[in-house]
Amino acid sequence: MGGKYRITGDTYPRMRPPRRRGRLVAAVVASVAALGVAGWGTLQLIDVFTGGDGSVSGHAADCRTKVAKAAPVKALPKPGTITVNVYNATTRSGLAKQTADELKKRGFKIGDVGNADKQFDKKVKGTGMLIGPATALDTTLPVLSTQLTDAERRTDAARKGTELDLVIGDRFKALTQRPAADSAVTKLTAPEQVAAVTTTKKKTC
């Protein structure tokens, strides 16, 4: 060849295509970008199922063990702190004293003992009536009612003091059997022994 393209010497130019470094670099960049997008997508899916706080949501969240604790039971007054007046509203004599003596054996304090006044005399058709001040409704009355479980309970807002009345009615035969009454008193006055805070586990799925 002549002119400026004239070949001189014994070395010839190589007639091969240029190296493809540009394509290689582009492929590497594309791979890195794809990996980044995949990682970001994975994080987004985790956020969807965990609610963004790392915990599993949806059905998986519901399938876990739930622990429930019962509220502590408040102990009620013991019989030794309760004064009971016993009145007989029936035509049978001696019931007030007999009943008062039995209540005393069971730990109650005894106040007045005698016949019921005109308000209740021969007017109590059930086994009996328990009467106390308004404050006794959820305190001392439930304790006394363990001794005569089917007796009617009443409160008098105008009544002063803490004493309770047990008015014996026509259907009265005897106080509740002592074993059952003592067990009921124990549950009310010392709940930590038989009804302490309980823990229950429930698995929901």
Short recap of the structure:
This is LytR family transcriptional regulator. InterPro entries: LytR/CpsA/Psr_C. With 205 residues, this protein is of the alpha/beta class.
- Please state the CA-atom Rg, rounded to the nearest Å: 45 Å
The shape, in one word, is elongated
Question: What's the N-to-C terminus distance?
Answer: 88 Å
* Coarse structural class: alpha/beta
The assigned CATH architecture of the domain at 83-189 is: 2-Layer Sandwich
Q: Given the structure, what is the number of helices?
A: 6
Biggest sheet: strands side by side, in what order? 3-2-6-4-5
Mean pLDDT: 79
CATH topology value of the domain at 83-189: Alpha-Beta Plaits
Structure summary, number of beta strands? 7
CATH level-1 class of the domain at 83-189: Alpha Beta
What is the succession of H and E elements?
HHEEHEEHEEHHE
Sheet with the most strands, sense and barrel status:
5 strands, mixed
Q: Which residues sit in consecutive blocks of at least 5 with pLDDT less than 50?
A: 194-199
Strand content: 15-25%
Kindly state the percentage of residues in helix: 25-40%
